Amino acid sequence: MSRTEKAVRRCPALLLILSAAMTGAVLIWPILAPLEWVSLVPMGAVLLWLITAEGKNGKPLSLGRMYSFGFLYCVVFQAIVYHWFFYLYPLEFTGMSPVSAAVVVAMACFGLGLLHGAIFAAAFPLIGLVCRSPICRRLPALRIPLIAAVWCIFEWMQTQTWIGVPWGRLPLGQVRCLPVIQTASLLGSYLITFLLLTVNLLIASALLEPITAGRRLTAALLVFGINFAAGSGLFLLDEAVAAERETITVSATQGNISSSVKWSGEAMAETLQAYVILTREAAAQGAELVVWPESTIPYTLHKYPWMVEYIEALAAENGVTLLVGCFTASPEGIMNSVVAVTPDEGVDGSIYSKRHLVPFGEYLPMANFVRAVCPPLAQLQMAEGGDLAAGKNAVLHNAAGMKVGSLICFDSIYEVLTLDSVRQGAEVLAISTNDSWFSDSAALRQHHGQAVLRAVETRRSVIRAANTGISSVITPRGTVLGELEPLTQGQITAEVECNSRLTLYTQVGNLLIWLCMAGTALCLGSYLASWFRRWNRKGIDTAPPA
Predict the structure, then answer these.
(1) How far apart (Å, rounded) are the C-alpha atoms in residues 77 and 24?
(2) Mean pLDDT of 50-77
(3) Sign, CA torsion 11/16/22/24
């Protein structure tokens, strides 16, 4: 028995907590990116031990115990990732009391962590079933890729339904290491997750089995090296063809007007004045497209004809196309939208409305239950008239002859929405967001990291305009051309590439997830078939004589 296995047997819980803490730290501080290639080793060692460990009765460890270990890991990890919820207190912009605000913040931090932990923890017993299947018993080398596959499936599940929030996915820890994430253009950021798990598990298995450590460590090095080399090649290849692409000069504006004041009537004049100045500065630097943040105008725009005329005059005067964050009215209800205002046509009719609304902020899921159990949560809605209506489709804006696909805030963390916009023909992506709720916490950088991943996955330039930061301009390779620090006012103007070609990932979508599901289902099916045969044989052996 190796020293590592002895340590795992003695204190598996401590190793899981250590692993969750290190991995969570990488997502908070992406500068620690290299750490993520080993931070999952303690967790991987526990997982590999759980698969083969036996209890006092000589039988494999129960699935319930595996779930409890998974729950411990996930809750610690989620608590670290979501610690920034405390920065929202005291939620002054909602008008709720300090006590109600404390309840909401606590439920957001611990409640969301517990909910996601309870779901993701199911990956551990599922891994146990898959790795104990006859297929894995015959081919033990499949265990590591299958564990990585199950992990990817559960990361993907975090994008499903209103409960799912893919905020803490592993690739976010690598957004500062651009050669590593370039292969996301082939099979999406889930490929980065798969590779991270594979390398960590290979190192963990080497520590558990010193006899074969050399081969496993070599394999881990090869997986990392091949991805790094392939990513470097893809980066250089895309950089080489960048000169052949058409360009457009764009600007991301940041007025630094917080949500705590922007909804007051007195703040509207200040807000408009700030963005008029920033727009003129951008136009003076040659900008053809100027992006304003989400809900820059926190009212239903067309209710105020004078405001429409004012913005149209601003666009015409400066010869720029404006993407203005505001609210719009539709037969379905009030929508959180981006309205395009061109210098020639004014409001041109291309209105994009947010497709993935924020639960409890923009609409209230399970409204009657929430109002009965936790009334303060119902006070978080900030839109006019209660629940907002969700947009249904991608919308393209025309700016200087280029097709611009809009995304709003939460939209940018769900890769399928970006894929939809690019498949519709978007050559550039514009993200309007309002992250002022997060103050200057790690949440700003985590959210910004999502934009970097979307740029690499689709090979599209991204213009990201945020009310109080982080606003930036990002190349199709994930390089940040410039960014504005949180809680500052300004604008970034830069020339960006326009790309109409589709990446492999844009064409095949989440094919990797379907392959992971197929492999998992195959092994799970073989396990269930084997169990049924054993159960049937036992029934025959113990049947009473005729």
Answers:
(1) 6
(2) 85
(3) negative
C-alpha 98/C-alpha 282 separation (Å) is: 41
496, 247 Cβ separation under 8 angstroms: yes
Please give the Cα distance from 28 to 539 (Å, whole number): 54
**Number of Cβ within a 10 Å radius of residue 137:** 14
Separation CA 117–CA 109 (nearest Å): 12
Sequence-distant (≥ 6) Cβ neighbours of residue 372 within 8 angstroms: none
d(C-alpha 85, C-alpha 279), whole Å: 32
Q: Give Cβ neighbours of residue 416 (< 8 Å, ≥ 6 apart).
A: 159, 509, 510
Considering 52-56, 301-305, 407-411, 538-542, the range whose residues carry the highest mean pLDDT is: 407-411
Q: How many helices (H) and strands (E) does the chain have?
A: 23, 12
By three-state DSSP, how is residue 403 classified? strand
Both tokens of 140, joined, read 């033990």
Identify the CA nearest to 272 among candidates 301, 240, 246: 301
Rounded Cα gap, residues 355 and 391, in angstroms:
4
- pLDDT higher at 14 or 379: 14
Whole-prediction pTM value?
0.92
State the residue for tokens 């932990």: 117
Residues with Cβ within 8 Å of residue 43, at least 6 apart in sequence:
15, 16, 19, 20, 23, 73, 200
What is the sign of the dihedral through the CA atoms of 146, 147, 148 and 149?
positive
Measured CA to CA, the distance from residue 383 to residue 281 in angstroms comes to 31
Sequence-distant (≥ 6) Cβ neighbours of residue 449 within 8 angstroms: 30, 172, 175
Rounded Cα distance between 170 and 201, Å, is 15
* Integer Cα distance of 41 and 202 in angstroms: 8
Tens digit of each residue's pLDDT (9 = 90 or more) over 280-337: 999 999 999 999 999 999 889 888 899 999 999 999 999 999 999 999 999 999 999 9
Which of 322, 326, 387, 385 has its CA nearest to residue 348? Answer: 322
- The residues facing 453 across adjacent strands are none
Query: In the predicted model, is pLDDT for residue 97 greater than 50?
Result: yes
How far, in Å, CA of 452 to CA of 181, rounded? 10
Mean pLDDT, the chain, rounded, equals 90
- For 292, phi then psi, to 5°, come to -95, 155
| Tokens at 41, concatenated | 């080793």
pLDDT of residue 538: 66
> Which residues lie closer than 8 Å to 271 by C-beta, 6 or more apart?
255, 257, 262, 296, 297
> What would the pLDDT profile of 9-46 be if each residue is shown by its tens digit?
889 999 999 999 999 999 999 999 999 999 999 999 99
Q: Label residue 174 by pLDDT band (50, 70, 90).
A: very high
Cis peptide leading into 470, omega within 30 of 0?
yes
CA dihedral 165, 257, 353, 277 (to 10 degrees): -140
**Better-predicted residue by pLDDT, 75 or 374:** 75
3-state secondary structure of 352: strand
